[in-house]
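Supplementary Methods. Inverse-folding protocol.

Structures were first reduced to a discrete structure-token string of length 124. This string, shown here, constituted the complete conditioning input.
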């Protein structure tokens, strides 16, 4: 099971070859999840002012399971942010990975490695 960080999706949307290959390798997999905060971060991009691009992004994400930010995620994210100095969006992603007992697929090892029990994977 793996949770995909926002930066991996951003690289794919920017058409970086290594990210495109990685995303193609996990397309439609039931073992892939992402955080609702990732969806929010992606939707915040200016490109989504175009409704067609926005709908295309939402359809793209729909092939995997989105994990909501419930009370358990919020509490753990607050603890992670306070203890390890992560920004709230990153703390939410880390908490989501920990609570779902999954590795976090990211290029942001600098920040996430501060969380000792978090399993990280750099895909490219």
């Amino acid at each position: 099971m793996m949770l995909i960080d926002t930066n991996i999706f951003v690289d794919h949307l920017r058409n970086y070859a290594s990210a495109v290959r990685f995303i193609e390798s996990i397309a439609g997999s039931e073992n892939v999840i992402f955080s609702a905060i990732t969806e929010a971060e992606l939707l915040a991009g200016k490109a989504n002012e175009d409704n067609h691009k926005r709908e295309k992004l939402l359809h793209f994400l729909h092939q995997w399971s989105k994990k909501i930010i419930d009370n358990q995620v919020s509490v753990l994210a607050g603890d992670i942010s306070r203890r390890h100095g992560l920004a709230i969006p990153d703390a939410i992603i880390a908490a989501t990975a920990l609570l779902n007992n999954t590795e976090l697929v990211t290029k942001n090892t600098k920040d996430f490695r501060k969380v000792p029990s978090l399993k990280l994977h750099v895909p490219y």
